[in-house]
């Protein structure tokens, strides 16, 4: 499912002999899909200057990246309230999604 980008992103890929750079703003969108071995992410820019940046991150790499984001956030000083609250809400949703879901078993009376 494609969701709108409410802020922005820049993507840069550097090779020894060339570089690619793309921006994705408010007229762009993104999608995130769970796969068996990781997360597939796409940044999508439509229109005349169409482009797609796609990433597949395996779960261990994703976990390492989240831990590094936490480290960088902790060492970087305070964020403004609006950004901090948005990141906190998204982080709490991730934690809730990762917790095991236990089905409530029906209670059976012993005869």
Blueprint (SSEs and pairs):
Layout: E1 3-4, E2 9-14, E3 19-24, E4 29-35, E5 38-45, E6 51-58, H1 59-75, H2 81-98
Antiparallel strand pairs: 1-4, 2-3, 4-5, 5-6
Number of helices: 2
- The N- to C-terminal Cα distance equals 50 Å
In spatial order, strands of the major sheet run 1-4-5-6
Parts with pLDDT < 50 across at least 5 consecutive residues = none
- What characteristic shape results from the CA principal axes? globular
Notable features of this structure?
111 residues, alpha+beta, 32% helix, 33% strand
Q: What does the model show?
A:
The structure is a single chain. β2 (9-14) and β3 (19-24) form a beta hairpin. The protein contains 2 helices and 6 strands. The N and C termini lie far apart (50 Å). With 111 residues, it is of the alpha+beta class. The strands form 2 sheets. Strands 1-4-5-6 form a 4-stranded antiparallel β-sheet. It has a two-stranded antiparallel ribbon with strand order 2-3. It has one domain (3-97). Helices cover 32% and strands 33% of the residues. The mean pLDDT is 90.
